[in-house]
Specification:
197 residues, alpha+beta, 8 helices, 4 strands, 42% helix
Length: 197
């Protein structure tokens, strides 16, 4: 296991950011089967298909593919806060300089300052779309309206400039929200009274 750890540390040096998740054996069926297989005696396995490795899998050279990040609204602010670099256009440079007062860099991440909330983690377009879908459909599954969804994302600690518009667009494109929404029984126009004689 020490050799595997050394290999991971060697590969991590080439990465800017990575995460390690601990998945329980109950939630990972393949690892659970492998664990049970390792705990049983070899003679009691019977007709089980097994593959014996002649060499450890560590000996292979693994290449790390670094993907280029998509352009984001955060790029000019991050460049200004970390390196002091502004855009060449004077109007854009002034706008970036003024906007940078609302943000802070911590551990290589951009956060937005807020008056009544803690620091809000700034998200790019891909992460923002994932957060919208996760909160709207998956974890909470309450299929909130546009404004409520945007406010819930703010309370969860995330921010991007177009979050209210994106939340409203997602709700309008969500089929279950449109299909099973409450039907308003108000008429399209004011009722006209007819007097019977």
């Amino acid at each position: 296991m020490a050799i595997y750890l050394q290999k991971v540390k060697h590969l991590v040096r080439n990465l800017r950011y990575f995460e390690i998740f601990n998945i329980l054996r109950i939630e990972n069926a393949r690892v659970d089967v492998l664990f049970r297989l390792a705990m049983t005696a070899y003679s009691s396995l019977g007709r089980t298909f097994m593959e014996c490795l002649e060499q450890p899998s560590i000996d292979k050279n693994e290449n790390v593919l670094q993907l280029t990040a998509e352009p984001s609204w955060m790029d000019p602010i991050i460049e200004y806060l970390s390196d002091g670099v502004l855009l060449e256009d004077p109007a854009e440079a002034k706008r970036t300089r003024w906007a940078a007062f609302q943000y802070v860099m911590m551990d290589g991440r951009l956060y937005k300052r807020s008056f009544s909330l803690p620091l809000l983690k700034c998200l790019g377009s891909t992460d923002a779309d994932y957060a919208l879908r996760e909160i709207h459909e998956e974890i909470y599954g309450s299929h909130l309206g546009g404004k409520s969804l945007a406010n819930k994302i703010l309370r969860q600690g995330y921010y991007w400039p177009t979050m209210k518009k994106d939340a409203t667009d997602l709700v309008q494109r969500c089929e279950p929200c449109q299909k099973y929404a409450k039907v308003h029984n108000q008429p399209a126009s004011w009722l006209t009274f007819i007097v019977a004689l």
